Amino acid sequence: MKKLKAGIIGLGVGEAHIKGYHKHPNCEVVALCDFSPEKSENAKNKYPHLKICSNADEILTDPTIDVVSIASFDNYHHEQIVKAIENNKHIFVEKPLCLFESEAIDIYERLIQKPHLKISSNLILRLTPRFILLKEKIQKQEMGKVYYIEGDYNFGRLQKMTEGWRGKIPFYSAVYGGGIHLIDLMLWLTHDRVKEVSAVGNKICSEGSSFKNNDMVASLLTFESGMIGKMAVNLGCVQPHFHNLNIYGTEATFTNTFQDYGLYYTSRDKEIEPKKVKEAYPGAEKGDLICNFVDSIFADQEPIISKKDIFDILSVCFAIEKAVNTSQSVKVNYIYK
């Protein structure tokens, strides 16, 4: 079996991708790219056997590279994905896929023309053992009918907004950059589809800083089944990073906690203690989806985070951002047809 050669653009979270590719016996990383002189120099010292470059085109146009990881700043994603498609490369991209609906439509239409190319995104919460158990319980209807689900992406690292690259690019979306994880979790857990959203936002926590976009967004989601969802992304909260999740079914309720367990309620009686769900959270590393992505290339099948998943999740996120900006309810316009 031919070994796939991979290149990685962006050595922030992208550095975690190296380990992910190297876990696969039929894949090797051959090139790394970052436009930061400091990161490039560090990479040369740390990975002396790899090609290190500062121009992404050196990876995107290299005919010997089969797979590219795009972990650059969000505003570079569209341009780099387009070049990867043009040069027949499979793509593993950090969320979000891109920043604007027009860009997503452009990427979708280009991928239609090259169906042999695989694309996936690093929505890592699907590998969390605690959430995998929840999905099984929902599928088996052990929780009854799920009628309400709420998730909060509590970032707890405001300095990354006010001092890092997110405050330096023209547009950064809290929804696309953080809330997208909870949107993916909701759709994946319930296998339901969002019809309409409403949302509000503010930027009180980062007021006076270089970060000019909303650092807090709260949204209400109406699902096709009649289920209601609430998703909030809170970049400035004064607490550690945490994915708050509550699922309400007619037979049971689950809540995630800061402890090393979640709570699973099967009774309304306060005298009956909830069960402790001790499966690991988060229990997955940033590069853990990559092995499955490489497998999907060899097997010519969809990865865990499929092309349809990427566009469906982002379609909901686009609707939330529109709802914030227009102060109106917005119907979700699904890109993937």
Characterization of the model:
With 337 residues, the protein is an alpha/beta fold. It has two domains: 4-117, NAD(P)-binding Rossmann-like Domain (Rossmann fold); 126-285 and 316-331, Dihydrodipicolinate Reductase, domain 2, CATH 3.30.360.10. 32% of the residues lie in helices and 24% in strands. The protein has helices spanning 15-22, 37-46, 57-60, 77-86, 101-113, 129-139, 159-162, 174-190, 290-299, 307-326, and strands at residues 4-9, 27-33, 51-53, 67-70, 90-93, 119-121, 146-154, 194-202, 216-223, 228-234, 242-249, 253-255, 262-265, 275-277, 330-331. Helix 4 runs parallel beside helix 5, helix 6 (129-139) packs across helix 8 and helix 8 (174-190) packs across helix 10. The longest helix has 20 residues, at 307-326.
Calculate the mean pLDDT score and round it.
Answer: 97
CATH architectural category of the largest domain: 2-Layer Sandwich
Number of helices: 10
| Distance N to C terminus | 34 Å
Total domain modules:
2
Q: Strand percentage, roughly?
A: 15-25%
Largest sheet: 9 strands, mixed
Here the CATH topology of the largest domain equals Dihydrodipicolinate Reductase, domain 2
Concise overview:
By secondary structure, the chain is α/β, with parallel strands linked by helices. The chain has helices at residues 15-22, 37-46, 57-60, 77-86, 101-113, 129-139, 159-162, 174-190, 290-299, 307-326; strands spanning 4-9, 27-33, 51-53, 67-70, 90-93, 119-121, 146-154, 194-202, 216-223, 228-234, 242-249, 253-255, 262-265, 275-277, 330-331. It starts with a strand and ends in a 6-residue tail after the last strand.
